[in-house]
Amino acid sequence: LEDGHWPPVVPEIHNEQLKQQAFTHRSFATASAPAQATKSMLTNIHNERLEFLGDSYLNYAMTRLLYVKMPTAREGELSLLRAELIGNETAAELGKMYGFDQALLLNETAERDGVRRGTKVIADTFEAFLGAVTLDGADGPARADRWLRLLMGPRIAKHIQENDIELVNPLAKQKIYNYFSKKHPLVVGPDGTRKTPVTVLYEWVDGKGGNEGGYVIACKDEAKEIGRGWGPNKKEAEHRAAMNAVRML
Q1: Looking at the record's lineage, which domain of life comes first (predicted)?
Q2: Where in the chain is the domain with CATH 1.10.1520.10?
Q3: Which CATH architecture has domain 171-248?
């Protein structure tokens, strides 16, 4: 974590009206509103619109975070993990951790019925709070993003570790090129330019390609194989072959 602590400190909501709305259940809004209050008036008192915003923002933020954190994962894997990260169980767990369930305002009937303990209600409160953060000033989205990144980062890292996913190192191919540039002597061309006859090649040696088993690519220096890598596409397989070659040097 950026600050070395988990869970991260919950973002502060400076707008008091937004903060109160995030923790106001429909039952409390209905019970405490004036008798002449209309449904449209109530929507600006209870947290359901904020929950709608927070739910959508959580989906977007987790999609983007997973895309960046897991550059080699396929769409299906990303979708499954995103569903876990944005599901009601996770949102309710995090909401309880921060005490959002205890901060929620309910009317007496809802309190007696145990609404406060409901997984969906706690998850909705977490999402409403997130929605409120995104609206709280010009820096609201940035603060929401940082909080979610710190909050969900360990879960993503755990998934990567448990599934033995090694992230692609996009610099590996350049490292291999630089290594053999120094190894091979310079050649002076007819026009006087000095060139390095780097002979690193990437050759498809196995796998049926695409959804038929992916690609196995060999990284070679001239005819000598120095590393192999598998990937669902040629680009990733080449990167992994280079990563393997770097380890072998």
Answers
A1: Eukaryota
A2: 16-163
A3: 2-Layer Sandwich (3.30)
